[in-house]
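Model it.
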Amino acid sequence: MPALPPYIIEPIWREFRALLPERKTDHPLGCHRRRVPDRVVFEKLVQVLVFGCAYERIADGSCSESTLRRRRDEWIELGLAESLRRAALKSYDRFIGLESSEVAVDCCITKAPCGGERSGRSPVDRGKRGIKRSVAVDANGIPLGSVTAPANRHDSPLLVPTLEAARELGLLPEGARVHLDRGYDSKPTRERLRGLGLVAEISRKGTPAPLNATYRWVIERTNSWQNAHKKLLWCTERRARVVEFWMALSEAVVIVGRLVREGWKRYRWEGRPRRRP
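Modeled.
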């Protein structure tokens, strides 16, 4: 069973392959055992992301568990997942167009049973270990920036780092409206947004506000897309940089999936799905 449809995995792999550095030999450490092809390792890591299975469960005769971990760490050192995410955002903005004048930000708590640098006591899971991810999305739910933190961190202190992650890529224009739920309704939050040159659209505490009354529903949808990647929903990684690797790869998959879906209505290309994705 493929982890992703070919019309999603193929463009992701082509862009990822272009980011890989050139190698002088196919033999690791100068020995005579041939290096496992990057394509094999990449597809297995995508399976780990989507299915959430352990490395030893996905390993087989073509690629061992130690190779998966070693190549993953190698790609983390090179920053390839983050570069892939940026390339996906650039492509989406070029062919479809980001609507970053309306931004929604919210947090999502997932499980982290093995603990680690990004884990904390979850307030919604009887104090078990969990990870909180804060994501900023545009009006169509495309992730612009994200940060991870322990589950016991409040949402408000993560707002500015999340918006700054989007601003570093030039994706947050001056005067953009930021839609937040009532958990962010406080004077310090409004002052922080004002200092960033952004307009606060925050639901008031004590006042009923349906989810579809604002742009906040798009962030809930994006969280559900990422929670479909079981490696994020049940994260067993202990190191922060590995968690960020999976976050960046997940966002790249989401962005390319939306690019194909929106592009299907506007363009024709070789390998275009027969039906709307």
